[in-house]
Amino acid sequence: MLDSSLFIPTILGTPRKGRQSEYVARFLVEQIAARDRLYTELIDIKNIAIPTDDAGESIKDPQFSATIERADGLIIVVPEYNHGYPGLLKHVLDTCLKEYIHKPVGLCGVSSGSFGGTRVIQNLLPVMRELGLVTIFYDLNFANVQQLFDESGNLIDKSTYIRRMERFMDELVWMSKVLKYGRETVSK
Questions:
Q1: Do 21 and 28 form a contact (C-beta atoms < 8 A)?
Q2: How many CB atoms lie under 10 A from the CB of residue 48?
Q3: By three-state DSSP, how is residue 67 classified?
Q4: Which of 26, 89, 131, 170 is deepest in the core (most CB within 10 A)?
Q5: Total domains present in the chain
Q6: Angle CA(150)–CA(111)–CA(91) in degrees, nearest 5?
Q7: For the segment 103-144, what is each residue's pLDDT rounded down to a tens digit?
Q8: Strands 38-39 and 6-7
Q9: What is the Cβ-side half-sphere exposure of residue 157, based on CA atoms within 13 angstroms?
Q10: Which residues span the domain enclosing 10?
Q11: Residue 2 · residue 181 · CB < 8 Å
């Protein structure tokens, strides 16, 4: 009998000071933790000490690698910086390879503009594919993020985002279960 619990960590994809995406990541972690048989942890890339003068698996952070290996799926919360993703996020993601194979990923775009990180998600899709991750078809977008949270980091209008989150998580959980079953029972 397969274990029906799932571990889905949330990666906060920017180390910048004053980042609004941290509020989004904390909201997602709170919502995931409230679901039955789902477990998560926040992986903040600012806390991953990797050199910037080398690349790839040779600079792999053992704790990050072990967490990704254990994961049944991933969520990446990524702010849009000039239509792209933060370089440090890409640098951190590139340190793992085999850990990602046949695992689903849900992408959550964050922006101060009205598109809610749509462009950063578009730019990340080929990266996710190359890493061996399977993107779910529903994304989360947090537009005008500076207006969504109060000064304590609490989401002001939860009702809108709870509905979006439910749809996003239902798809991610389904994909996580299917791909976990495949990784555990289907030989190549």
A1: no
A2: 16
A3: helix
A4: 89
A5: 1
A6: 115
A7: 999 999 999 989 889 999 999 999 999 999 999 999 999 999
A8: parallel
A9: 11
A10: 6-163
A11: yes
| Residue 105, token pair as written in the block | 């990923």
- Which structure tokens are listed for 79? 């702010």
Sign, Cα dihedral of 154, 158, 162, 164 = negative
| Spatial contact of 92 and 45, defined as CB atoms under 8 Å apart | yes
| Domain contains 91 | yes
Amino acid at site 32? I
Answer yes or no: is pLDDT of 67 > 90.
yes
Amino acid at 108: C
User: What CATH number did the domain enclosing 61 receive?
Assistant: 3.40.50.360
Residue 176 maps to a domain? no
For the whole prediction, is pTM greater than 0.85?
yes
Does residue 80 sit within a domain? yes
For residues 145 and 25, the answer to whether their CB atoms sit within 8 Å is no
Yes or no: say if 172 and 106 are a contact pair by the CB < 8 Å rule. Answer: yes
pLDDT tens for each residue of 137-166:
999 999 999 999 999 999 998 888 999 999
CA distance 164 to 140: 7
User: Percent helix, strand, coil in the chain (nearest 5)?
Assistant: 45, 20, 35
What would the pLDDT profile of 22-46 be if each residue is shown by its tens digit?
999 999 999 999 999 999 999 999 9
Strand partners, 12: 44, 77
Cβ atoms within 10 Å, residue 153:
12
* DSSP-assigned letter for residue 1: -
